[in-house]
Design brief:
Blueprint: H1 2-13, H2 19-22, H3 52-55, H4 59-69, H5 72-75
Helix pairs in contact: 1-4
Length: about 80
C-alpha cells in the first residue's frame, strides 16, 4: 500500500496523475532549516484538524508523511 501511495505522489509531482490527485498534493516552501538545494521536495500536511483514525488513512495525510520520510536522493529524482 505504501508503494502505491508513493507512486501516486511521484506521478502527481511530475504531472502524470489525474488532476484530482494533483490537487491533494501541496509542496512545502520557505523551509529555513534546509541548507542545501538538493534536499528534494517536501510536502505539506493538511492544516485542518480531523479525527486521527480517518486522517492517517487519507491520501492527503499519508502522501506527505511517506514522501517526507524518503531519503533526499529518492525525493529529488527527476522524470
Amino acid at each position: 500500500m505504501k508503494f502505491k501511495i508513493l507512486l501516486l505522489t511521484f506521478k502527481a509531482l511530475h504531472g502524470m496523475a489525474p488532476s484530482y490527485i494533483i490537487d491533494l498534493i501541496n509542496i512545502k516552501t520557505n523551509m529555513r532549516y534546509l541548507l542545501h538545494t538538493n534536499e528534494g521536495v517536501y510536502l505539506k500536511h493538511p492544516s485542518r484538524k480531523m479525527k486521527k483514525s480517518f486522517s492517517d488513512r487519507s491520501f492527503s495525510v499519508a502522501a506527505p508523511t511517506l514522501w517526507n520520510a524518503l531519503p533526499a536522493n529518492l525525493r529529488s529524482i527527476k522524470c
